[in-house]
Amino acid sequence: MSAEINVLISSVGRRGQLVHCWKRSLAALGASGRILGTDCSRSAPAAFLVDQFFAVPACTNSDFVASILEICRTQKISLIIPTIDTELPIYAAHRPAFEAQGTKVAVSSPKAVAIGGDKTMTRDWLVAHGFPAVRQGTPEEILNNPADWRFPLIFKPRCGSASIGVRHIRSPEMLKLVCADESDAIVQELAAGVEHTVNLLVGGSGDCICSVPHRRCEVRAGEVSKGVTVKHRPLMDLAARIVEALPGAFGPFNLQAFLSSSAEIQVIEINPRFGGGFPLAYQAGADFPRWMIEELWGCPSTASFDDWEDGLAMLRYDTAVFRSLRDMGSLC
Fold it and tell me: Is there a single domain that holds both residue 185 and residue 204?
């Protein structure tokens, strides 16, 4: 492959393993190019792992899009990889502007992003399309009819992420107290079984290219710290049907569901982006970066839906990046 491929990982933050995945795939393809990163913090750890880093305004800032467009123009960016929930609607809305100057954005349509970003919309969409979803309601609905609900329950911000604000509710009295701190929330019944994440990749045609579930054995700060790949075909196929049914689905997804001992599946979340546990799927053989690059340049695809290692475990640990303060300007 002779064409240069420059990939920009947006809000690179702590995604050091994701950076390494993209670098490995780019090198394996024998392609020239770079992996670049942006973040609103100059002290983002992965900022020192990319080939070139740019500090940009926060995605909520009115100058964010113009800053990213300028970076894409000057650095000849081929593909943008958004990584955090708050920037997905912005990239989805401005995708035509990026494509007009030759930069593809790995993000789904505004409608698909909206469905994934709002837990009420997620469940309503799942139910409307006949997919299995955990029982869910508003705090008011539960407090009006507490006998109709099976405590303990899970309390979540309606548009939250990374397990921020998630609480176990043991009684109606506790729910009343928690509601005082969070005005826009949902409550879910505890799903039966073990929680799984499914890493998925949707191509430009809207077809799911690959589906890789892993069991979430241990979670820290909303991300899997210990997990193992599970080649459970019904879960793989269900997750693939779900993302293919989403309007304008494109790029990486991670879907969270519970799998019971009787093989019942209940879906709780759909996230239209790379999940924090994606490196496990990558190590198992699901080379999403390579397949995305192949599609970008119209090369024959080497993708496979299920040709990855079953039973591969990931055991995460902390590591660190060390740099002089001169390289960052400030830290605290």
Answer: no
